[in-house]
Amino acid sequence: MGGRAVMPYLLPLLPYAAMVAHVCFDVGVSALSKAAMSKGMSHFVFVVYSNALATLLFFPSSFIYLRLRRKMPPITFSLLCNFFLLSFFGVTLLQNCLYTGLNYSSPTLAASINQLGPAFTFLLAVIFRLESLDLRSSRSQIKILGTLVLISGALIVVLYKGPPLGVTTTHSSYKEPTPLIALKTTDKWLIGAIFFVVANLSASMFTIFQAVILKEYPSQMIMISFYLLFGALQSAVVSLIAERNLNAWKLRPGIELTAIIYAAACAMVSYSAVAWTIQKKGPLFVAIFQPLGIAIAAFLSCIFLGETLHVGSIVGAVVIVAGFYGVMWAQSREEKQIELNNAHQRQQVSSSEETPLLGSHRDV
Predict the structure, then answer these.
(1) Rounded to an integer, what distance in angstroms lies between the CA atom of residue 93 and that of residue 74?
(2) Using one digit for the tens of pLDDT, what is the confidence trace for 158-189?
(3) In Å, how far are 93, 130, 189, 285, 312 from 101, measured between CA atoms?
(4) Is 187 exposed, middle or buried, given 0-12, 13-18 or 19+ CB atoms closer than 10 A?
(5) Rounded-to-integer distance, Cα 336 and Cα 342, Å
(6) Cβ contact 132:330 at 8 Å
(7) Where are the domains of the chain?
(8) Which ranges of 217-291 would DSSP assign to H, the alpha helix?
(9) DSSP string, 344-364
(10) Lowest pLDDT segment from 67-81, 168-182, 224-238
């Protein structure tokens, strides 16, 4: 009885828990893949192997499960084309740009640029009419302002690195980098940032497109199965063109194999969590959890990769969090208003249904 009494209170928290887990998995994959690539693993090969393993694990089990439950919606050619396009945005373009950016920079920068995700998703959701925008409403104004603050925070992280934390100029072991080294580091930082921006735009398209597909075809497992399959095939074609070194395709035990297995497992769990949450709460709800990744990424990078935090990252993170909570607050207020409107409509319908009955009773 106690468990049943608690469940109604826990159910509304499930989308939040799913998104926190998704962000943690996502940052973990970035950190592990960066460690594997630092050992010489090709990021093109990593994308192919991780998605192929996820497909082998998820595709058969999902079809068997749906066949046993006899809930297999029909699959049309146009639907397969949509899955193919979804794979291009969510796997081929997104992951190859993400891991190329990691080659040039770090998971901390990736998590920082990820803060552009809510801005891109919000704009695309308005364009595709998945989110309402009323410029006269204070909630919409706060959403827009929060989105601009998010973008500003991401730009601070990219354009202003600042001095490292915990290092002082009076320390004997600290040396100011030469202009040539600083220029090379800045160039790599900016190249990585460009790839991360493209990856975030692709991720936003991926999230919006999922919401559009799930409205017409509500089977999450079939959708995930096909875009994993198409993503593995597309990535294989890209990798065969971009990676000509045959030795790069040889898997070595250790961090490389661990990163691939972890990425495949996380892909299955994260994609399922994201698809389910999109159906429950919408695409913008998924996107606004991305700022959480910067704190986790900085923590993991310091521990596992030995990176140093810089002032620019901290300042940008504070600005990002401020924008994040502004958008979150406006989103929650809109949801409450929608619930109140729905309750009011149900009350009006029930009262209109009761009135004729009372009138007919008086006539009798």
Answers:
(1) 28
(2) 677 778 776 544 444 434 444 434 434 556 77
(3) 12, 30, 9, 25, 19
(4) exposed
(5) 10
(6) no
(7) 17-164+175-363
(8) 220-242, 255-281, 283-287
(9) HHHHHHHHHHHHHHHHHHHH-
(10) 168-182
